[in-house]
Amino acid sequence: MQLIPCPWCGPREEAEFHYGGQAHVAYPEDPSALTDEEWAQYVFFRENPSGPFAERWSHNAGCRRWFNAVRDTRTHDLLAVYRVGEPMPEVIA
Amino acid sequence: MTSPPGAHLPEHPDFLWDNPEPKASYDVVIVGGGGHGLATAYYLAKVHGITNVAVLEKGWLAGGNMARNTTIIRSNYLWDESSGIYEHSLKLWEGLEEDLGYPILFDQRGVLNLAHSLQDVRDSVRRVNANRLNGIDAEWVDPAGVKEICPIVNTSPDVRYPVLGATYQPRAGIAKHDYVAWGYARAAHAMGVDLIQNCEVTGLETSQGRITAVETSRGRIAAGKVALCAAGHSSVLAKMVGLRLPLASHPLQALVSELLEPVHPTVVMSNAVHVYVSQAHKGELVMGAGIDSYNGYGQRGSFHIIEQQMSAALELFPVFARAHLLRTWAGIVDVSPDASPIVGLTPVGGLYLNCGWGTGGFKATPGVGDCFAHTIAHDKPHPFNEPFTLERFTTGALVDEHGAAAVAH
């Protein structure tokens, strides 16, 4: 089992965490102005890279807080973890 | 020793296909040499007479999800759109061995989809009714009926997730996945299709909104049309022409036990506890899990998923307690938001998309091969894949099959 370094609790087993998909997907600033195409992009379309991916995790069985991580989807290596509100760190995969 | 070990062995049997150098150009280039790519090439040649076709495979033929799936074939999906394409596929499976002239060990041993809660029961009965209205064989069986069809299922009420009944599709079954791929490859090759292995697509070339060529690890190949059949890597390919897809690639794990005498006469799937089990012809118990939650291209998943899957399997089948696990592996599945595939045209002229089959693409192999070949040949979707456009995520005409897809999506 993979260890995930929670930015508050330190490294814990993966089974304690819940996955939240792509990070930094902001709610539309002016929802009523969106076209159907833009809504579709917001609701259904996400990045799906083979390589570093900024994503959300929640430490469900621990501090119960959400945080962000950059993980390489090819190796599943966690390259960085950072708290919500912090900018995505530069990582070298 | 006067001769090397193995020198006395007979000659290698005849190869089912050769390994040609890629030509400079083809009418149709299919990206992905798995079941869907090979079947598409076969029906392009056989039904539409288009034989100047190359199937490009970055690894070896049928070494991706085609080699990693649990070979379950069924058509008991809820909606009319899904019934159309999955039942079309099942009907092709029923004649495929004669069609290909190659044994595929297609065995219609039936599938039980278990219900473990009242909501499961209601959903299952609804699905049975929907199936029957679409002419698909389906019946609701109570726990005693489950026991009769598959005696090793634990139908005791004293378990965490008791079996309250199941849907049963007698025409469902399994096939030998490798033989299916080899059968299609052999037949496509015989009609003049070039099967090119170790050839990774690294770029897609367009001119004035139309596809013109693919860049590969073995050079540039000009193409009149390009058809993507790359499952988990579809997003990576589509991005080469700036096309975003509503897909997430996840690891999906499966495993086999050591060889056992025949104990499991059918296929059993359980949505609630995330396990599906059949027994291969050779004797291994073949079991699949739900997907790992995170996106991943690594063809491996986390071990706790296997543990959960085993605990579910043991509760359902106490007789498995002494079976030894032989091998586990993972494939990369491209999961779509509505658990239905995306098959059709793209905004780029001459570029066609077949993806989003998630955890259930194997059963669709003949059906989608036929419909996708039609789509490519006529530049227009076949009626069976017409509902499965990329545009449905904008129009809202989703085909929600999370229930019938039967594993965690």
UniProtKB/TrEMBL annotation, chain A:
GO MF terms held by the record: sarcosine oxidase activity
GO biological process terms on file: tetrahydrofolate metabolic process
InterPro entries, alphabetized: SoxD (IPR006279), SoxD_sf (IPR038561)
The protein's name in its UniProt record: Sarcosine oxidase subunit delta
Organism: Lentzea waywayandensis
Lineage, broadest ranks: Bacteria, Bacillati, Actinomycetota, Actinomycetes, Pseudonocardiales
UniProtKB/TrEMBL annotation, chain B:
Family of this protein: Belongs to the SoxB family.
InterPro entries, alphabetized: FAD-dep_OxRdtase (IPR006076), FAD/NAD-bd_sf (IPR036188), Rhodanese-like_dom (IPR001763), SoxB (IPR006278)
An individual GO BP term: tetrahydrofolate metabolic process
High-level lineage: Bacteria, Bacillati, Actinomycetota, Actinomycetes, Pseudonocardiales
Enzyme Commission number(s): 1.5.3.24
Catalytic activity line of the entry: sarcosine + O2 + H2O = formaldehyde + glycine + H2O2; sarcosine + (6S)-5,6,7,8-tetrahydrofolate + O2 = (6R)-5,10-methylene-5,6,7,8-tetrahydrofolate + glycine + H2O2
Cofactor(s) this protein requires: FAD; FMN
Protein name: Sarcosine oxidase subunit beta
An example Gene Ontology molecular-function term: nucleotide binding
Annotated compartments: Cytoplasm
Origin superkingdom: Bacteria
Record's keyword annotation contains ATP-binding: no
Domain spans labelled Rhodanese: 5-72
